[in-house]
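Repro:
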Amino acid sequence: MKYAITLIAVVAALGLGAVAAHEPDPTPETEELRAARDSRAWALQQFQRRACRPGETAVWVADKEADCLREVRP
C-alpha cells in the first residue's frame, strides 16, 4: 500500500511536469512577431539578390544592407 501511494504521487508529479512543459498555443502577438521577422528576412534576401553588382565595394553593400534593415524594422 505504501508503494502504491508513492507510485501514484510519482505519476501525478510527472503528469504535472508534462502539462507545465507543454507550450501554449501561439498568441496573436507571437504571430505578429513571426510575420515581422519573416518580412525582415524577405527584405534582406531581396536586397542581397540585387546588391552585389560589379564595381560595388563591400562597404557600400554593407551600408545598403543596414539601410534596408532600418527601413523594415519596426
